[in-house]
Every structure is written in C-alpha cells, then in structure tokens.
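Hello,

I think I submitted the flavin mononucleotide job twice by accident. Can you confirm which output corresponds to this input? Input:
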Amino acid sequence: MASEKGKHIVDSLNWRCAAKIFDSGKKVSQEDLHTILESGRLAPSSSGIEPWKFIVVTNPEVRQKLRVASYDQPKVTDASHIVIIARRTDSENISPDVIARTAKAQGKSEEDLDGLKKMVDQTVSMKSDGDVRDGWIAAQTYIPLGIMVQTAALLKIDTCPMEGFDPSKVNVILGLSEKNLSATTMLAIGYRGDDPYADLPKTRQSYDEVVEFV
Ligand SMILES: Cc1cc2nc3c(=O)[nH]c(=O)nc-3n(C[C@H](O)[C@H](O)[C@H](O)COP(=O)(O)O)c2cc1C
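Support: Only one job matched these inputs. Its output is below.
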C-alpha cells in the first residue's frame, strides 16, 4: 500500500522510540544536528508567529545542572546533544515581529502588510486570558519538537522528547526569563545505548481507532 518513500518513513517511525538510555560515547555529526534543528526552524506555526527558541546546551556543567532539574534523567547528560525548546513570554512583541519578518522576506513595507497585522493582532488578543495565551504560545513549540523527532528518525538518529523537568529551575539555570523565554520541552538527541525499553513492542492505538473518514 505504501510507496517506497512512504515505506521508508513508516519503517523509520516504527524504529523510532523515545530513547531512555543513550550511548554517551557516540556523537551526532554537526551536519546532522544542523539538519534536525533546521527542520525545527522550518516548522509551521499559528499565524506564522514562530514563538520559539532552541537552545543547544554543550557545557557539561550546565548539562549536569539541567539533569538535576529534570528529576535526574540520565539522557540530559548522556545524549550527544540536549536542546531546550522555549516559548516566548513577551506576547506583546509577537505581532510586530511577524510583520517585520514578513516585510523583510517579501520585500514589502509594513503598511503593505496592514491586513496581516490586523489578523495577527486579533489572533493574539483573542487569547485575552494570560494563561490561555501562554498555553497557545507553548502549544506552537510542540510542532518543531515533533518535526525534529521525525527528522532525526529519518536520519536513524535517536531522540527523546521531554517534559519531565521543572521549567522554573531550567529558566533560572539558563537565564531564560531575562530573555523573555520559558522552557516548554527538551529534546535529547544521540544514539541509543543498551536500552531495554527500545525493544518493547510499540504501544499504539490501531489505525482504525485513530483515523476516521467522514
Ligand atoms: C511532549 C513529550 C514529553 C515527554 N517527556 C518525557 C520525559 O520527560 N522523559 C521520558 O523518558 N520520556 C518522555 N516522553 C516520551 C514518551 O513517554 C513516549 O514518547 C511515549 O511513551 C511513547 O513511546 P515511544 O515514543 O517510545 O513510542 C515524552 C514525550 C513527549 C511527546
């Protein structure tokens, strides 16, 4: 049923697992790391707001502190790379940034983009309640997270997406609040080690449970 390309994708996604144990001696090449991060950068977002930053932490001492803030999950120090995905907290600057970015990319004046500005302003302000707005902004950051997981799998590189950490501690360790950012997720990237979980059968709802044609 699947084409050759489709089979490669589905096989890769069946091979993928959220790796619990990483081989600390195996490094992902800079080229592959760049491809993974680039695929996250190209992720779609609601109204094109891209309210995110990906922070690749390489300093071993900082990684150790992050591990403590992540309930001592070994992957934070043992994976080849750890990326912190953060959401923007300065929602008031989101719309002006979208307009400036679009004007630059499309060679237009900001006045030309008045319709887009109204649409983005309205979308952001519709989320009037602070918590709802923060939740909506945070939700966008899961899109690059998912895409990076998939890109890595297609490159036969392991990942573990992570929410198991205390964001307030991570924000302090990385000085994120001062930069109007707050950590939402992490992505450990590397190669699986001797991981007993990796060989367990995949637990998923069936295709027919998940997919409905109307
Ligand atoms: C947003 C998100 C957060 C997660 N947080 C953690 C985590 O902190 N630690 C962990 O070991 N796994 C974490 N996982 C992995 C899930 O437990 C895993 O994807 C799920 O059980 C399905 O297993 P599989 O990915 O191996 O197929 C997370 C997954 C997602 C998508």
